[in-house]
Amino acid sequence: MTAEELQSLIQQGLACEHIELQGDGRHWFATIVSAEFDGLNLVQRQRKVYATLGNRMQTDEVHALSMKTHTPAEWQAQ
């Protein structure tokens, strides 16, 4: 899977203000900024992102996805 394909999948299921991806096609690191994370804890945010991938984690299209998730306010504060 390419970075563009992964980004498209995430953005189809989650309104992102900013997304950065780094990886080798199977192992990925993402920085994602979305207002949809407002009021959610870390686990809830990660579940929201994983949900955008559907079964691609189980089928090994995406072997690993590490992420930092931020609300727009958290991103601005950095």
From TrEMBL:
<dbReference type="InterPro" id="IPR050961">
    <property type="entry name" value="BolA/IbaG_stress_morph_reg"/>
</dbReference>
<comment type="similarity">
    <text>Belongs to the BolA/IbaG family.</text>
</comment>
<dbReference type="InterPro" id="IPR002634">
    <property type="entry name" value="BolA"/>
</dbReference>
<dbReference type="Pfam" id="PF01722">
    <property type="entry name" value="BolA"/>
</dbReference>
<dbReference type="InterPro" id="IPR036065">
    <property type="entry name" value="BolA-like_sf"/>
</dbReference>
<protein>
    <submittedName>
        <fullName>BolA family transcriptional regulator</fullName>
    </submittedName>
</protein>
